[in-house]
Amino acid sequence: MASPLARQRRQLLENQVSHSASKLSASANTESLHIKLIDFEEDRKYLKQLNAIEDKVKHKRDVLVPKYKPYVEAYLAKGEVFENPIFTNMVIWLFDVNDMETAIDWCLKAIALDLPTPDNFRRDWPTVCADEVLAWAEKESGRGHSIEPYFSAVFEKVESEWRLHEEVHAKWYRFAGLHLLRNDEGQPQPTSIGCLDTLEKALLLLQCAHEKYAKIGVKTKIGQIEQRIRAIKDNKNL
Questions:
Q1: pLDDT, tens only, 78-100
Q2: DSSP-derived secondary structure for 137-163
Q3: Which residue among 7, 84, 131, 182 is least packed, with the fewest CB closer than 10 Å?
């Protein structure tokens, strides 16, 4: 059996080895990122030369996302925390190409890791996620496509977790309420809804939007919903 002194020496040696390995790993990660960033910056320069937004999105979708996604996946798998511009820019690019599942997942990881947004972004990650998902939901809804599960997943965080600007918050409540009122043409029309439960849910959402930000522009629609609810309760069903 080793003496207490021998055990102490062995522990000190193990600590030194572990510390040295950690330093080497950090150094290797930094060097690897530095090399990767040189190539990454060249790709960003080329991207900036493209004038049409459509061309930029296509280049991100077809070239840049496939190129850098494996690197970011490896970075996340290691579980190490350091500022990584490739990762943070990739989150934005994923929103740009409508890869909502990965974009939201990685955005939530960026929030959890407390990483800054890219240098040219003044918004924080919750605001970025809220803005991007809402814009996507508005487009998809307008095309008659489903907005789930992504809309509800982010709306839950908008409602209960994230401290957003009042206008951003109100936009989410407004969209959620109007989305319940869609007619066959996809337009928010209270008179096309015959379910009291749906009307009351929409009313509550729009009232929340107005309370959050009075300039959000829902007062007229609130009045129409209230009128529709009264008509149904009075058996007028206009």
A1: 887 888 999 999 999 999 999 99
A2: HHHHHHTT---TTHHHHHHHHHHHT--
A3: 7
